[in-house]
Amino acid sequence: MNKEFLKALLKRIISSLITLFLLISFLFVLIRLSPGDPTHKFLSAKFSPELKIKVTADFKLDQPIYEQYINFVANIFKGDLGISYNYRMPVLSVVWQFLSFTLLFASISFVIQIIISFYLSIKSIRKKGNTFDKVVSKLSLIVYATPAFVLGVFLIYLFSVQLNLFPSSGSKSLDFDSFSIAGKIGDYFWHLTLPIITLSSAGIAIFYKYLRDNLEETYQQPFILNLRASGYDEKVILIKHVLPNAIRPLISVAGIELGILLGGALITEIIFGLPGMGRLMMSSIFERDYPLVIGCALTAGLIIIISNFIADLLKMKLDKRMIKGLMN
Amino acid sequence: MKFKPQIWHLLLFFWITIIIIRVELLIDLVVLWAKYFLLFISDFNIAMQLLDFNLIDSILSIKLFIIIPIILFLFRKKSLWLKASLNFSSLTLVMLLLAFIFAPIITDENPEFQKDLKMTKLLTPLSSVKILHLSKKENTPTSALEKFINYKHKIIKPSYNENIILVNNVEVKSDRIVYSQKNIQKEINFSDVQIKDGIPFVTNKIFILGTDEFGRDIFTRLIYGARISLLVGIGAVVVSLLIGLSFGFIAGFKGGFIDIIFSRLTDLFLAFPIIYFIVLILALFGNSLLAVIIVLGLSGWMGLFKIVKSEVLAEKNKDYIITAGMLGQTNRKILTKEILPVIFVPLVVNIVFQFSNVILAESALSYLGLGTGNSYPSWGAMIESGQRYIIKAWWMISFPGLILVATLLSANDFGRRLNKVINPGIRK
Amino acid sequence: MIRKSLFLLPILLIIFLSSCGTKTEHPNRVVIGIPADVNTFNPLFAFSVDEGQVTELLYLSLADFRWNENLGELEAHPMLANSWEWAEDSSSITFYLRDDVMWSDSIPLTTEDVVFSLDVYSDPVVNSRLYGFFEDFYTDEENHIDVKKSFLVKSDYELQINFKPGATPKLIDVVHPVIPKHIFDKYDRKDIETAEANFNPVTNGPFVLKKWDRNQTITLGINENSFLYNPENINELIFKIIPDYKSRLTQLTKGEIDLMELISTEDIEELKNLDKVTLRTIEGREYDYVAWNNIDPNVYKDGGGITPNKLFGKKEVRIALTHAINRKEILEEYLYNYGELAATPISPIFKTYINSDIEQYNYDPEKAREILTKEGWRDTNNNGVIDKNGVEFEFTLNIPGGSPLRTYASAIIKNNLKAVGININVETLEMGSLMDKLYSKSMDAWMAAWYIPIPIELKAFWYSDLQTSPVNFVSYQNKKADKIMDELTKNSTIDKKKKLYFEFQEIIHEDEPMTFMYWTSNIVGINESLRNTGIGPLGAITHCWEWSVKN
């Protein structure tokens, strides 16, 4: 059993590494093929042709392509992503500054999505078919179909412009440093309320739908009917038997959800002017800051690869438990 | 018995409504079709020269329009589709399809038409302006060809028109005509305008859903926008389908090394946050309609690939496939004859969801300034520009926004219904 | 019930905590909303306009340039230098520095710093933004200033700069922000680009950098030791980075920011109704144009050959195109007359040099058709598009993404040209791709804008030798114009310059290398309590240490 597990783990690690390598090569090809020259951002009548030639040489854009590729891959595996053209700082430290925000932002949103969707789906499966269930089901469809930018613009218009309850952009106040710790946390949440609603709503709708369908399906399983017939308490059935079964497919959805979350974070960060990865990525693309573009894309890819890996591990773990549970 | 609306009722209703409100246009189009047919016989070369997208579009839609009652009459009893009951999602989807096909008949305006910005900019829904028709300066056409071209322009309207002036008010003052545009008054000679019953010929023009910042009719743009959105949706899905189907089939059938490569490739695409990928490509390589379609297609084939591969793997060891192989059928035939019918339904469900994802993605891209651009009236672009006028002109964002949400809702609903048909386990 | 209140707890917590951070009053603080963060505080690398504006507040130059509204010219005032003296024959200049200027780490600023700065600016390994612009100095082959020959340090506060024989030096080419020698001397020259000191700068200006929160805020505090310090004026300047235009505008109306630039004309009406915001305009710094590639892009691509463009090669055609475009309608209906029609690349703010005799090519589709017909463009195959020798008058007009004005104008232009039988296809390109195509000269037509330098600079834009005019994207070539531009680089009297500029404008107008659309105004919204803001062609925030807040 254990050996099998290790073997599966090793296989999974190798396949993740191959994916990573493919991602790196793919990025290299993409960047090399793309039009646009990083030196062009210096476009101005007061920019001498001499400087252009020099900058191009400094960016090592004049080497043969295979040398560039080998250097590129070698450097990445050494952990050296180079220096950002714009920030004039090592790419990793730039990425880290912005990544920490997005990670915090996305994980808060993720937790909120899980809590609310669990709450809603259990409540609506319990009262299956009544008004609450119907309204929430319909509402979740509408929320799912509403694009994040439409929702974000609407929230700003309503809560920021008209009602003046929340700030329309940024992640902290100007006097942030002079606040007490409680004040700092409060200020942060005050700024993040609207963005988190924007980012979470679609995820809540997705999780809700999956959970509700899974719960419904599990409830129809023969063994649940048996338990019910044996007179077990509904709560015990739900917590001990239905939920573990319903969660398993959810984990693989969560892996995919993460991609959606990162994408949603990109749009949300732009609408609300938050200092996150999405905005960093956009601005680095538009300014042709190639080392940074690669850094961002690679980081985002890594996050997804790692979290899929964890999701798979969890699934394996859960599977085992389920087998054990059945045997007992 | 209670009356339950079915899809063919909607089609009939559509047909009758259009006949009532667009009767002149329909007759004109039929005449145009006849004239073009005559021209086609008499002078093939010139007819080919005159053939452009708008002409084909108009003639095709009038042809299809005439066929509608025949189809209804013939298939009403037999076709399951036509008998399907009408609900929110099927209503929306059928309307979309009608807008897609009959755009030139539903609206008689050019989606790019603009004139006298001062008069038409950002008009509220249901507002109207007056049109003062000028007498034509050009010489009367002599040849049959010129006559045909003139006639064509009268019916298939170009995006400009120099023979009209849009005005608020027209007054006759002795020998001059005074018209007002907003608060500016201008004068014009009697001889320059068309006269009917002794007074200047003035008609009314109503903008049902208002106008945008260019003074273009929003209703018309929504109708034509349906074409772009559907085109992007369908195009991208076709791209995804082609990739997913061929990769999946090859990977499933050949297995081994090829399977590993394709599966890694799938992982790669799944590992990249899809919007980063799309933004990266569009921003780096430029965003045209075609680029948007291809990139969105490229970003959505993984689900299809997985379905096809697993189905092929499941099917390929079954007896009938092996027999077919032994009977000497080629792989292509096995794909089309044996595998496709089996995976058809799950594919369709996946495609429907993919379709709604694509439409959503297109509008998000427009928001980021990477959509299909402003050369086409796409809904995403309309929302994007409406967003800038949200306080001044609520109608600019509301109508396309509502239609977008309705479309996405209907497509999702449609997909779920299909899913229920094939997975009856979930059905209540 | 308990569970329900648990649900409410986080909401209550947020409300409670946010009230902890009550706002403190900062009467002399000014907050400026900007769309993008700066990348450096080092004037060596301040490529963007925003970076230039911020670094100029941190680092002063020897002289201070201000705009003289009446003459339409720059005027030099003393700054780090109390005064200066030109040699009779312009072969050298002597600066007399102030002796009371300290770096922010309390080390005095001396002539050594000035010499070091010019040395570093011109050093090829540094990649400064001004590299290659020191032709008037004694330099080596790599354009690096020869320090020994060029500078004569007479004392800590007196410096003589010698120029190459035959050079025509101007004050503006010599005076650049001064950087501290004692800081940057510690670095290897090629490491200055990534030096830590670029982010925690040691400065000499009226402001010091207090805090930099990347992509959020830049906080500048007043430097009380500066000779420019005045306790009555503002004491804190915060640049708040808000990328989304709508958010910036919302914050201006709510008073969260005190100043923002580049307000869209569509929003003016709304802002005019507000009491706390006043609108100011910076005129004549930027013009929009529709470029018609004068040369054939395909031939150019196949080996740099110069042949006239099939469509736009003749000036008559280009003039007809200008006649066909209703620039006035765009100016009136989109720009609400904030701006004026442009006829040449010389801005109306240069009052001495603007040739007012030049007559605009008015909107006249009839005339456009007439000219085109005369040039042989007729619709011979009845497809609604004019053609000549089998070539249809059809092309793609590229516009950069993210510019509502250009999107707007392109829609109008498309319709205008269609009316004279020209078919265009508007394509939006992302800025990076557009630049690529600009440099490779591979587009037929595009729309963009030029932010013009002060003082007037023509050679980079219009010179025939495409090597010396890197941004002559339309490849305009005219020998007569070249001669005038050569003449203008020399020092001469105002009257002579005036004559040359007038002549240049006439030539450009006659050739119409592109359709000059209009000079657009930079509309600046500021809090009405701000006083003494000298908003002018040099920018919205120059000299902002002189601002004060009305209480």
Give an account of the 3D structure.
- The complex is a heterotrimer of chains A (328), B (428) and C (551).
- Chain A has 328 residues and is mostly helical.
- Chain A has one domain: MetI-like (MetI-like fold), CATH 1.10.3720.10.
- Chain A is built from eleven helices and no strands.
- The longest helix of chain A is centred in the middle third of the chain and has 39 residues.
- Chain A is globular.
- Chain B has three domains: 80 residues, no CATH class; 81 residues, no CATH class; 209 residues, Orthogonal Bundle (MetI-like fold).
- In chain B, the strands form three sheets. Chain B has a three-stranded antiparallel beta sheet, with no helix packed on it. A three-stranded antiparallel beta sheet of chain B has the order 3-4-5, with no helix packed on it. In chain B, strands 6-7 form a two-stranded antiparallel sheet.
- By secondary structure, chain C is of the alpha+beta class.
- The model of chain C has no long low-confidence stretch (mean pLDDT 88).
- In chain C, the strands form five sheets. In chain C, strands 1, 8, 9, 10, 11, 12, 13, 16, 17, 18 and 19 form an eleven-stranded mixed beta sheet that branches. In chain C, strands 4-5-7-6 form a four-stranded antiparallel beta sheet. Chain C has a two-stranded antiparallel sheet with strand order 2-3.
- Among the domains of chain C are: 135 residues, Dipeptide-binding Protein, domain 1 (Alpha-Beta Complex); 236 residues, Dipeptide-binding Protein, domain 3 (Roll), CATH 3.10.105.
- The longest helix of chain C has 19 residues.
- In chain C, strand 6 and strand 7 form a beta hairpin.
- Chain C contains 17 helices and 21 strands.
- The chains are: A mainly alpha (328), B mainly alpha (428), C alpha+beta (551).
- Chains in contact: A-B, A-C, B-C.
- At the A-C interface, helix 2, helix 6, helix 7, helix 9 and helix 10 of A face helix 1, strand 10, helix 7 and helix 14 of C.
